[in-house]
Amino acid sequence: MNKRTIIAIGFIIVLVSVLVSVLIMLPENTPKQASQEFTLGEIFDDDAGGFSKATTIIPFSFPADHGPHPDFKNEWWYYTGNLKTLQGRKFGYQLTFFRLGLARHTEKRSSNWAADTLYMAHFALTDIQNGKFYSFERFARQAQDLSGAQSQPFKVWLEDWSTSSENASALPMKLFAKEDNVSIDLTLNYNKPPVLQGDQGLSQKSDRPGNASYYYSFPLMPTTGHVRIGEDAFEITGNSWMDREWSTSALEKNQAGWDWFALQLSDNRQLMFYQIRWDDGRIDPISEGTLVMANGSSQKILLKDITLKPLSYWQSPITDKRYPIKWQMQLPSRELDLIIEPKMLAQEMNLSVIYWEGAVKVQGSANGEAITGQGYIELSGY
Amino acid sequence: MNFYFPSPTLFRASLRYMLRHPWQLAMSFLGIALGVAVVVAIDIASASADRAFALSAEQLSGRATHEIVADNGLDEQLYFALRRDFGLRNVAPILEGTITIPNTNVASIRLQVMGIDLLADGPFNRNTSSDGQRIDMQAMLTQAGSGLLSKTLADELAVKEGETIGVEIDGKATQLFVAGLLQSRDDASEQALKNFLMVDIATAQEWFQAEGRLSRIQLILPEDSSTETILTQIRALLPDNARIETLQSRNTALAQMTRAFRLNLTAMSLLALVVGSFIIFNAMTFSVLRRRALFGTLRALGNTRSEIGLLVLTEALVLGFTGAIAGWLLGLLISKGLLSLVTRTINDLYFVLEVQQLHIGWQQFFIALGLGIGASLVAAFFPALEATRTQARVAMLRIELEQRVKGWMKWLAIVGVIFMACAWLIVELPGQSLIIGFVGMFVFLLGYALLSPLLILKLCRVSQSSVKRIGGFTGNLAIRNVYTSFSRTGIAIIALMIAMATAVGVSVMISSFRVAVDQWLSYSLQADMYVTTVKGSINNKTPVIENKLATQVAAIQNVDVISRGQRIKLQQDGKDLNLLVLDVPERGFKGYQYKEGDTQSAWPVFESGQAVLISEPYAYRHNIKLGDILTLPGKNNDISFPVAGVYYDYSSERGIVVLSHKAFNAAGYDFQPTTLGVYINEGKPFNAVRTQLQQIIGNDNLLIRESKAIHEASLAVFDRTFTITQVLRLLTIIVAVVGVFSALMALHLERTKDFAVMRATGLTVAELRRIVLLESGIIGIISGVLAIPLGLLLARFLISEINQRSFGWSMAYHLDYSHIVLALLLAVGSALVAGIYPARKLASTLPAAALRND
Fold first, then answer.
1. pLDDT on residue B539
2. Could you give the percent of chain A with pLDDT greater than 90?
3. Engineering a disulfide at B309: which of A282, B248, B388, B445 sits with its beta carbon 3.0 to 4.6 angstroms away?
4. A154 shares its domain with A224
5. Nearest CB to A111 within list B83, B89, B206
6. Is pLDDT of B180 > 70?
7. Do A18 and B129 touch (CB under 8 A)?
8. Cβ pair B142:A115 closer than 8 A
């Protein structure tokens, strides 16, 4: 082999190695996965950052306390209800406005978009007859009139979703929500005065002082109005439940979620109970509830007074989350024994926070006599 | 004729030959590789820019289908009207601007800022998920100056979430708090995200001093029968200056803008391939011709014509294939460098686009293969034919070949002239197709190349006596060598000629363009100073120059007159119509230089609002002449004006219509000037006026710019824009020099024996060396001389056809003799460089050894 041949072969070798190295250097296109799901704990962050905490019992004053409490970080107006038409067609609804304080005492800014508070609202309608569940979510900042809350006259709104009243007493309340072709337009009166939950309205969420909320409810609100789905408008009547809470608190690290029950019984009693679950499956001893008597008085219910037993589960085909959907609730001291089951299984709120919240029916016995009822339960943190 | 495939013995003969002449092999290989590489590199760079644009458009518009835009931004109340009152759910406000991150490791980074309402943006699915960690929503909403960076950029800048970095907005320093990182589905999209900064709309409004304003409003509208109804309802809500368009049409329009530019690049790269093809042609021809004796022997031994022909074609195929692969790889490397140049031009001329990632697809690989193999096969076709035609006995005689080649020349020349005539006919075809323009240019080039052998021969003959006089007998020998061995030198000469002609043509075109732009800037910037809005806020505010301000400025001492102008985009037949509305004194109006019409007749009718002016590109695109009637969309009804003049303009490819504010008012619009021109009395000092002007306008988002500065800045942009063209020209020259080098090397090395004979018959080493160098020099000179007329013709082509068709503007032909001198020097220089090695090598070879070896 002569010298020139070697040069030529060398040339080819260099080329081949360049080829190989370039092929190696070519970037790979591997798709990356990114998921985005919040947990309630993240939304209701407990970083106080200048916000007040619920540490002491305070006297509530209405209608002022129907309005917002900007000193506290989190607040909600929570409406649920079971409705039906004259012909007996049944619906359930939820409309909730969440106020999330982001910061206190922020500096003045020149853009009108600047905000220190945002609102989130959830709206759901259960069409039991057709087995349809509609759920929607909105966010908006408290700026540019996009969202806000006020007590006089009472109004909480997020764009065109709102709860409001024309009266100084804030009652009756009007609810309006519309998305796509689904809407509710309701008037909520009241049969019973507001019930102060927890300890005279101070509801402890963990052992930690200040990790508590101010909490009251309207447990029975006779409701009239309209539900619209597509071209169909239904005139309805029914009963709603309103929950009001404000706090600067959040779940503790070991608290995984909660199960919340708001039941309206046929004997004109109403029962609210929530249990907070720990990571290890045990129930936080702080869990509590209230039994509202027919005359409007109320009795506190502690965890030791109650047995709550899941009877069956439902797994969401969309999120794969498994919810305890049918419950047995027993209060031996009150001689109450209830079976709670959903009017429809698929009432999962698959929004930026995923939870199950739906209309339920109740059957059982009170003092040995048969009793029925309906209500809403909320299952979160699954 | 019987058809046999060549036997393995034949291939072995071929392989032995190649290995014994590795230089020749390497050079033809390099010729193909370089030619292919340039085309591939351009294609990759251009495709990458294209893809980056498409990706970023897709990333940022997400699922949006429509967009409401206006020339100087929108009032944010429109958004609230759509969302709250009209009840549209999928509607998102956007406010854009740019910021700079100064003094990073390499250079300042410009980021496009997209101010959005994160809370309304969900349905748009803008690919803005945060990397693992959550977006600090609290900071985004409540803390001014919070933003989301792409993870890639954050890594490059070495900043993390929660950190603060310094940025500049309109030259003012401020802080950016990194509230989260953006990450995309895949790397390519990630790259597209890299030059974006996502901020809350409040921050954007504050940064760009655009409180209450939006750049755009995006919408997702259902695609069904209800769309038209919704659109009509939305249109009724829009103010005069706003319009709603589909995102698709917007993105297409943006992509269209760069189409002409990218087509020009492709054409430049094809020129390089033409040169490359000639080199391949040269190499193939040479390797066949050199083996005429071998082929003759093989024929005598009983091999058929078709065997020999197929052998040559197979060789070409293998060479073409390997050369194409190498060229593709080389192209990948070059494209990286070209990409930044392409991007820079797009940034300067069209829109902000950052492209970091090469988009390497199979497309370029197949282009490379097709070009490499195609060019080598075409180049080998005639040599293969030649190899088969050779009579076994005659084949061994070279003189016969040279005779035959000379016989062809006449025919080639005739075909060449026909080609050139065809080229002329092609470009005279009606229409404005850019591709037709390029086809014409290439046909012309080919025609000239075919004609050139005859020209070369004539040139040699004509100059023979003078060369002999100057160079003595060595000169005589040298020039005779050039044309007696024309079959070997001719193609190299043509390749070099085409490269040099390209260089001349492109240089003349660029310098003509530059002179035209320079002159245009001088006369169109008639005022001495301009008051304009601060750059960056222009999109978001209506920075009207108030009457009061204008009056105050006009009253400044030594200010002669003032002019006011407004640029506005209207819609006509679904297309953008650029208007320039002027309230201008006669002194300012005199700046227009007319292609059709003149100032005296245009001024009175323009001033009174009875007629309009149109720019040359507008006239070209719409086929409108002086005196034609132009119909413009008035606010309520269409309104017609006669065209009082067609003026030269290089600012807009799509063209501009200029009308006086009176005509604008007559069309039903309000004149809202955004620039103010200040004309100072002749010979009076600038500074005093400037100081007073500054006092009057204060810090009111207005900026004073002197004409001189605008002029210089514009030319700087021009020069940057054409860097890519200059680089391509350089690449073409490199391809040509390599070609000439390989041709000459092969030529001289082949003649080792001839030279040995000359040495043996008494020629000294120095004389031999002189002959070789002289030959090279003559080849260089011939190429250079032939390149000049071709180059000038190419320049004319580029100016009057390609530029006209791409941009719609014409320009005067400006000949700078330095280009011609440079081309000549380059041609001679590269030929001489190519001759040095053979000259040295030959001179040092012992005649006896050389005679024995061959």
1. 43
2. 66
3. B388
4. yes
5. B206
6. yes
7. no
8. yes
Tell me A27's DSSP state: P
Which residue in B659, B658, B710, B681 sits closest to B561, CA to CA? B681
Q: Which two tokens stand for residue B659?
A: 């009308």
What single string gives the DSSP state of each residue in A169-221?
A: T--SEEEEEEETTEEEEEEE--SSPPEEPTBTTEEE-SSSTT-EEEEEEEEEE
**What is the domain range of residue A180?**
54-104+114-250
**B276 in a domain, yes or no?**
no
Q: Which of B187, B220, B253 is the last residue of a domain?
A: B220
Closest by CA to B601, choosing from B662, B646, B661, is B646
Using the Cβ of B102 and the Cβ atoms of chain A, whether some distance falls under 8 Å is answered with no
- Contacts of residue B742, defined as CB under 8 A and 6 or more positions apart, other chains included, come to B23, B24, B26, B27, B28, B30, B31, B279, B282, B283
Which residues are paired to B200 by β-bridges? B116
Distance, in Å, from the CA atom of A337 to the CA atom of A263, rounded to the nearest integer, reads 13
**Distance of alpha carbon B786 from alpha carbon B9, whole angstroms:** 44
**Among A residues 45-74, those touching chain B with beta carbons less than 8 Å apart:** 45
Task: Tell me the torsion sign for CA atoms B846, B847, B850, B852.
Answer: negative
Interface test with B, best of A98, A102, A111 (most B CBs within 10 A): A111
Give the minimum alpha-carbon distance from A350 to chain B in angstroms, rounded to a whole number.
Answer: 14
Partner-chain contact B329 A18, CB within 8 Å:
yes
Q: Which of A188, A216, A250 is the last residue of a domain?
A: A250
Write down the ipTM of this complex: 0.80
pLDDT per position as a tens digit, B763-814: 788 887 888 888 888 888 888 888 888 888 888 888 877 777 777 777 777 7
Q: Which of B417, B466, B528, B535 is nearest to B781 (CA)?
A: B466
Domain count along chain A: 2
**Across the interface, do A109 and B144 touch by the CB < 8 Å criterion?**
yes
Most confident of A196-210, A334-348, B297-311, B733-747: A334-348
Q: Is A36 on the interface with B (CB under 8 A)?
A: yes
Tokens, residue A46: 């407990």
pLDDT in tens, A258-296: 999 999 999 999 999 999 999 898 999 999 999 999 999
Q: Would you say residue A133 lies in a domain?
A: yes
Residue A339 near chain B (CB below 8 Å): no
Tell me which residue has tokens 């100081």. B691
Q: Distance (Å, rounded) from C-alpha A207 to C-alpha B817?
A: 92
Q: What is the mean pLDDT of chain A?
A: 87
Q: Residues 6 or more apart from B737 whose CB is under 8 A from it?
A: B496, B499, B830, B833, B834
Q: In this model, does residue B701 exceed pLDDT 70? A: no
Which tokens sit at B48? Answer: 């990458």
Q: Which residue of chain B has the CA closest to A105?
A: B142
Structure tokens belonging to residue B89 = 């759910």
A2: which chain B residues are within 8 Å (Cβ-Cβ)?
20
Same domain, A221 and A326: no
Which of A40-54, A319-333, B317-331, B390-404 has the highest mean predicted lDDT (pLDDT)?
A: A319-333
**Average pLDDT over chain B, rounded to an integer:** 78
B-chain residues within 8 Å CB-CB of A113?
Answer: 117, 200-202, 205
Q: Give the CATH number of the domain where residue A355 resides.
A: 2.40.370.10
| End-to-end CA separation in angstroms for chain A | 77
Confirm if B745 and B836 have CB atoms less than 8 A apart: no
pLDDT(B187) > 70? no
Longest dimension (CA), chain B: 104
Decide if pLDDT at B648 tops 80: yes
DSSP H or E run through B291: none
Classify strands A195-196 and A161-164 as parallel, antiparallel or unpaired. unpaired
* Per-residue H/E/C for B562-580: EEEEEEEEEEECCEEEEEE
- Domain span at residue B171 reads 66-220
